[in-house]
Amino acid sequence: TLIRREIIKEKRFLRKLYTEWYKKIDTEISSKIDAKVLEIGSGAGFAKDIISDLITSEVFECDGVDMVIDATKLPFDDSSLKAIVMTDVLHHIPNVRDFFSEAQRVLANGGGLL
Fold it and tell me: Is the dihedral of CA 14, 16, 19, 24 positive or negative?
């Protein structure tokens, strides 16, 4: 994961691609909601450099990641997040129905899943 992070940052094309993607995600996040944003599967990325109020997470201990979590059992209160974001992650979640149920529970009214 750390090697993938370095590759993404060092390769100009990949860094630019991820930067553009993170900026697009950031513009889609509702500024009307005063709450944090959760990124799932943050290990190799650098979204926290671009998206404010971002909580980074991964399924294992990793440098630069705020929390180790299971996306199907999110450790957040109901309606407490303005967004959940992820890049190339959904296909790694074994039970997406449980994840979507949890996402719906923790997202504030008007929040989004990107």
Answer: negative
